[in-house]
Design a protein that fits this description.
Elements (H helix, E strand, L loop, with lengths): L1 H13 L2 E5 L23 E2 L9 E6 L6 H8 L3 H7 L13 E7 L3 E5 L8 E6 L7 H10 L10 E5 L6 E6 L1 H4 L12 H4 E6 L10 H18 L6 E3 L17 H10 L2
Parallel strand pairs: 1-2, 6-9, 6-10, 7-9
Antiparallel strand pairs: 1-5, 3-4, 7-8
Bound molecules: zinc ion.
Zinc ion (ZN) binds next to loops.
Length: about 260
């Protein structure tokens, strides 16, 4: 039922999607445009050119919050074709980690849903402190920690490990349902801060170039849509009352700020 509501919400509404071409599997990520995509409040769909592959049958592993509708948007394939190819009678029975066939799939696009809201005032950046991972792995880790709703971040930016491509942006169920995060208790940040986690341990390593490109794109998309000033784009460790090194001492903070400033 919840998935149907979500699908209807998107259909009815809003189609608030920004797309980026990431390429598929080991194909390189699309180039981030020099300026943020034009944003039109309420109804927009922006994409930018990047690496593309001929259409082909591929397999997709379902992540947290992903639905057949979302997968159909990611690969530009009709929902009916996916349902038929996998003999899926009830899309609600799909589970995280399940592999499905996506017939005649276009190059993977990153789909970022945006929902009208006045609650989001900050963007908080984290690292996963794991060398590998994706939203599915972080979801299971957070559940083991006792987070009833699983994955505590609103978005995850992958590093090309597990089943995801480098720079892929995954929207979590908390974002899709517009729920509080579970990424930063301090200063009440969970209720008005959008939590973005980059997969990796940036204590000594840097994020990949594609992760940074996607982070810039995601922050610009969110900050434009929700009117979040650059001063409210912060690291986890910048939150008052929080004693943490997250997102790690090797995270290129000044470089990110410069890139965000250049695009304003
Ligand atoms: Zn953190």
């Amino acid at each position: 039922m919840l998935k149907n509501k979500k699908i209807n919400f998107v259909r009815d509404g809003i189609r608030c999607f920004i797309s980026c071409v990431l390429g598929f599997f080991l194909v390189s990520c699309g180039t981030v445009p020099s300026k943020p995509a034009a944003i039109q409040t309420g109804n927009f769909y922006a994409s930018f050119p990047g690496a593309s592959l001929p259409r082909q049958d591929i397999r997709h592993v379902m992540g947290p919050g992903e639905t057949v509708f979302r997968v159909s948007k990611m690969y530009d394939v009709p929902m009916d074709a996916i349902l038929k190819a996998n003999r899926i009678a009830d899309p609600k029975e799909l589970r995280i980690g399940q592999s499905i066939l996506v017939p005649d799939a276009a190059s993977l696009r990153c789909v970022i849903p945006l929902y009208p809201s006045h609650r989001w005032r900050y963007i908080v950046i984290h690292h996963s402190v794991t060398d590998t991972g994706d939203a599915s792995l972080l979801d299971s880790i957070h559940r083991q920690r006792g987070f009833d709703r699983g994955l505590g971040y609103h978005f995850v930016i992958d590093n090309g490990t597990k089943t995801r491509v480098d720079g892929q942006i995954e929207a979590s169920p908390r974002w899709i349902k517009q729920l509080d995060g579970a990424h930063c208790n301090a200063a009440g940040m969970n209720s008005f801060g959008i939590g973005i986690c980059l997969v990796g341990d940036f204590t000594h390593e840097r994020p990949s170039r594609k992760q940074m490109d996607s982070l810039v794109l995601l922050i610009n998309t969110l900050s434009n849509y929700y009117n979040i000033p650059l001063s409210h784009v912060i690291r986890h460790k910048d939150v008052p009352g929080k004693r943490t090194a997250c997102p790690g001492n090797s995270f290129p903070w000044q470089e990110l700020k410069n890139r965000l400033r250049d695009k304003r």
